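$ ./design --mode recover --in tokens.txt
reading tokens...
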């Protein structure tokens, strides 16, 4: 089930926390023709001129270098393999057969249409079947998909599908609730709008009680 709607929310969160991102060897999704750092810096210079400024003025001299380095961090998710992150699982803790929920995880991404930030939070739950994964791995999975150019709908589905495929749980539920800077700082200028996307599979779909428990636990008064 994919459900999308919009609600009005409180003031902007500040963008970018200091979450460290490990850049690892390219594997799952390498760009076939990644340009050199110098070429990328040249492109930033072109954009500065396109904006109407002078890349040679003092304040902008180091900007291309800063921008390309920031891009390596914003888009470090291309260098990691999401399935590999979840691959190391543990035999289920004895007797634990309830939902595992990571709630209110910060999400940072960039929209693939305008290359501006998407910032919000994600709730990810699964109902284990024999195997569990370290909870930090779920958070890393969110980062790997977040640190790519995205649409929120695609990212929500990718997270749920990867968990389903690798962990094979009885069910998985993902909710992403985020603000798109392309909605708030340009175009329609709808400040305060958040977009909510959900992807619900298996037991969370078939068992209304489990689904209700999930929405209750994340404190959602929007859906369900
Ligand atoms: Zn956009």
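writing sequence...
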């Amino acid at each position: 089930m994919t459900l999308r709607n919009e609600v009005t929310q409180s003031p902007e969160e500040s963008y970018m926390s200091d979450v460290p991102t490990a850049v690892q060897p390219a594997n799952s999704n390498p760009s076939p023709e990644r340009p050199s750092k110098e070429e990328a810096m040249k492109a930033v210079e072109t954009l500065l001129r396109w904006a109407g400024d002078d890349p040679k003025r003092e304040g902008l001299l180091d900007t291309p270098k800063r921008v390309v380095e920031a891009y390596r961090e914003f888009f470090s998710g291309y260098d990691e393999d999401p399935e590999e992150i979840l691959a190391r699982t543990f035999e289920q803790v004895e007797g634990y057969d309830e939902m595992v929920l990571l709630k209110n995880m910060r999400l940072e991404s960039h929209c693939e249409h305008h290359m501006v930030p998407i910032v919000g939070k994600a709730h990810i739950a699964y109902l284990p079947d024999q195997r569990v994964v370290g909870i930090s791995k779920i958070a890393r999975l969110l980062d790997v998909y977040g640190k790519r150019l995205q649409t929120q709908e695609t990212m929500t589905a990718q997270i749920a599908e990867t968990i389903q495929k690798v962990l094979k749980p009885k069910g998985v539920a993902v909710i992403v609730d985020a603000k798109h800077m392309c909605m708030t700082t340009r175009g329609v200028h709808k400040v305060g709008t958040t977009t909510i996307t959900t992807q619900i599979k298996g037991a969370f779909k078939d068992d209304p009680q489990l689904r209700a428990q999930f929405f209750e636990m994340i404190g959602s008064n929007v859906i369900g």
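exit 0
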